[in-house]
Amino acid sequence: MIGKKMEAAINEQIKWEFYSGYMYLSMAAYFDGLGLAGFASWMRVQELEERFHAQKFMAQLVERGGTVKLAPIDGPPTGWMSPLAVFEDGLKHERGVTGRIGALLELAQKEKDHAAVIFIEWFVTEQVEEEASFAGVIAQLKLIDKTPGGLFMLDKDLAARTFNPTGA
Ligand code: FEO
């Protein structure tokens, strides 16, 4: 049976995972508006990842005898200055999520909840990938800056991303 503090903290994290997905859908809509279908598709895959994360936490709570309490989700931002600004916001957001996952792990350690420690460690590894995928696109956007057609080539590349969660 999971403790009340861990249960509350996991419910809070579930809210943030859904918020992340909501924000990435907003970013997808921004790219749709620019006619960059590959960027939009990349963001939709990212949203699927976030929903997967949220449901992984939900399943764990149920398995541990806890109660899932879905909370209201704030509205995401809706406008950006450029594709680069979108990905910079995404990376900043992911770094914040990494901090939250770290705090969750520290709480599990403090509570001596070993099952939660092992479960949360998956997310520690996942956050390394999450940050790297945003940083990778930022690096490419900076490389193609002022290259004619570069944005459209990258759009084609990003369209290839598929939803392929690890440890599903
Ligand atoms: Fe659920 Fe993007 O971390």
Q: In a few lines, what is going on in this structure?
A:
By secondary structure, this protein is an all-alpha fold. The protein has helices spanning 4-34, 37-63, 83-110, 114-143, 150-158.
Please provide the ordered H/E string of secondary-structure elements: HHHHH
Write the CATH homologous superfamily.
Answer: Ferritin, core subunit, four-helix bundle
Task: Give the class-level CATH name.
Answer: Mainly Alpha
Examine the coordinates and then state which fold CATH places here, giving the name of the CATH topology.
Answer: Ferritin
- DSSP helical segment count: 5
3D architecture notes:
By secondary structure, the chain is an all-alpha fold. It has helices at 4-34, 37-63, 83-110, 114-143, 150-158. The longest helix is centred in the N-terminal third of the chain and has 31 residues, at 4-34. MU-OXO-diiron (FEO) binds next to α1, α2 and α3.
Chain-wise SSE layout:
Layout: H1 4-34, H2 37-63, H3 83-110, H4 114-143, H5 150-158
Helix pairs in contact: 1-2, 1-3, 2-5, 3-4
The structure holds MU-OXO-diiron.
Q: What are the defining features of this structure?
A:
single chain, Ferritin, 5 helices, 168 residues
